[in-house]
User: What shape does this take?
Amino acid sequence: MRKRGRPRVFRDFVLFVFVPFVLALLGSTDAGASGRLVVEAAWIRAAPPGSAMRAGYAVLRNAGDAPVVVRGATSTVFESVSLHETVDVAGVEHMRALETIEIAPGARVALAPGGRHLMLMRPLRELASGATATIHFDTDAGAGADADFVVREAPPDH
Assistant: This one.
């Protein structure tokens, strides 16, 4: 007479624990993949005192191995921060809001004059040349990234 208890326990273990574990490992080759936003060369164009609107520029770099989607930005120094781009329509430049900016793994996106940029509305304190303002970028991944933007007359040298 054959003992059935031990082989059945082993079979159940293999079927219900070991096999699903191995399948999960095999099926999750990119489960650890994630994007990581890095903000470089961040600056705000200097403006006359009392200006209600400023523009912020930087290089957004994805240092991860999955796409990063920037959904917006916030700052305690401005009432509102939004993603914008300048577009040419029939020879006239217009600004339009952007919902997102997607950055591929290893890629860079420039926020630069005449292109994509941050629209910084109603500063809550005076921002003279040399002052800094921290801006947080919101991403789909959740962590986002903070960067200190320096108020300058011209872009920093790269």
Remarks:
- The two ends are 81 Å apart (CA to CA).
- The first helix runs from residue 5 to 27.
- Residues 21-30 have pLDDT under 50 and may be disordered.
